[in-house]
Amino acid sequence: MSQEIDIQPGDRLLVSRTDRLGDLVLALPFVETLKARFPECDVDVLASLYASPILENNPSIDRIVRVQNDQLSASRHYRKELEQRLRKGKYKAAIVLYPERHISRLLYRAEIPVRIGTAGRFHSVFFTHRLLHSRKANKKHESEYNLDFMAYFHEGLTIARATVYPTDKELKNARRIIKECGVEGPFVVVHPGSGGSAERWPMEKFVELYDRLSRNRRVAIVTGSDSEGEEVTQAAKSNGIQLREITGRTDLRTLAAVLSLATVVVANSTGPLHLAVAVGTRVVGLYPGRQIMSPIRWGPIGEGHRVLQPEVDQCRCPEGRCRCMETITVEQVAEAAETVYDDVIGKQT
Question: What predicted TM-score, i.e. pTM, was given to this entire model?
Fold first, then answer.
C-alpha cells in the first residue's frame, strides 16, 4: 500500500505528461480525478506545446505549462528557464505520468517537495515516491495505468472518461468550415493520418472507404494535416474520386470542434481518434496486430465504439513496414462505420 501524501487546501499540484496528443488525452481522467478529490487545490498540467491546446477551457485545470520538447533536449538555457518557471510555481507535489528524463531532473532541481514517478528507470532517482508498475505487458488501458498514481492520494471520486471542451466560438467556426464543404446534416469524418505513432491503414483504402460511404449515401469529410491532405488527394485523383476535405484548415482546437459535430469518426490508432472520443463522438478505430499497440491499452474509452484489427495472431512484420493492416478490408470498415452511424442517427430520432 502506497503511503498517502498529505495534501492541504491551497496546495499547488503539477501533473506532467509531455509526449503525444493521444497520451495527453488519456491523462485527462487522472487530471480530473485529482481536481475532483482536491477541489481547493490548484491543478496545473505540464504538456508539450503541440498537444497542450486540448487542455484549454477545461474547468479542472488551473494553468497550463507548455514545453517545447525540441528545446528541452537541445538547449541548456531553455531547461534553466523552465526550471525557474517550475520553481516559481511553488508546487507541493508533481506527478510525472510520462517519465521524460529532462523533466524528471528539472522537477528535482526546482525543489518540488513531493515528486511522484515510476520505478525502475535511471532517472527514477529524482522521484521521492516511485510507483512500481510496468505498462509493457498491456494488461489494461493507458488511462487506468495513469490512474494508478492516485494510490498516493486519499480515496474518492474517480473519473474514467477523458473530456475535451470546445468553446462556443470554436464550434461556430467548425460549423462554418463544414458548411463551406457543402455539408449541413450528419457526416462521417475520415481521418487517414497516424502522425507516425502507429502502423496505419493504407491511404488508398481510406479513399475507397470514402467512395463507398458516399455511394451508400453517408456524407464524409476528410480531415488531417497539409501533408496528409496532399497524400490523400493524390490517391483520390488516381482513382477518379473527388473528396470533401478540410485538411490543413484546422488547428487542434478547431479539429476537436469538428470531431464533436461528426456522427462517427474513422481513424487509425492515433491522437485524433482519442480526441474524437473525448468530445463525445463514436469512433471506428483501426489497430495494428502488434502487442505494444494493443487496443486493450490504447483502444477508445466507453461504449458504442468499434475496433478492427488484422486477422493475425501477432504481427511479425518489420517495424515501419507492416503489411498486416492491408488485410483489414474496406467492406469491414464501411460496415462498422455504417452500423455505428445508423445507431447514432437512430438514437437521435
Answer: 0.95
